[in-house]
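=== RUN LOG ===
request id: a7f3
mode: sequence -> structure
chains: 1
length: 228
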Amino acid sequence: MSGELPQGEDKARAVRGLFDTISPRYDLVNRVMTFRMDVGWRRRAIRELHLPAGSRVFDLACGTGDFCRELSLAGYLPVGFDFSFGMLANARTRAPLVQADALLLPVREASADGVTCGFALRNVVSLGNFFEELGRVVRPGGAIALLEASRPDNAIMRVGHAVYFERVVPMIGGLLSDRDAYAYLPKSMAYLPSAEEMLRMLREAGFPSARRLQLSGGITQLYAGTRA
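=== RESULT ===
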């Protein structure tokens, strides 16, 4: 994935192909490039759900099942959804898995107690439609916890993060998996609107309590909220 970032259906095809390609070593690369901090980020996101044990939680863009495994350990009943068949084929979870577009989930309205999503907001074709779909499938009083990459506010950390994210991450990806795919990772940040805009969109989609938390010095952001 090089040159200008794709849009619309071109983006959907490119993202699906990218994740099919990197799925066999996806977990390994994540652990290496985040120094295993990704495990803690998912656990923090799950704590922000504040749902009772036994709640049904949809994990969107579930990948190889990391969130599903942690949700099960926390006492929830996860169902994973992913656009990429390659990811689902390499999943390591006992949770039910469904190949589906996160913008058109094959489920009834208000059928989820909660939704999680890990580092996929920049990969959907329409973030506004994605948030609207969250509002459709999460029951009133249910909760969301959405992780995404971020850039630190602190100027010094921002410079160091930029060097790591834009140069080191593609190198690690190239050594362990696919360099072009991991070169897309920093570029794809351009798809994300500002934090203020994302909070506005979430609130308009039915999550008036939506809030943003910065994790690990701001290299990761977590959006959490309750369905009105």
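=== NOTES ===
Strands lie at 56-60, 77-82, 97-99, 112-118, 138-149, 211-215, 220-226.
Residues 8-149+192-226 form a domain with the Rossmann fold fold (CATH 3.40.50.150).
=== END ===
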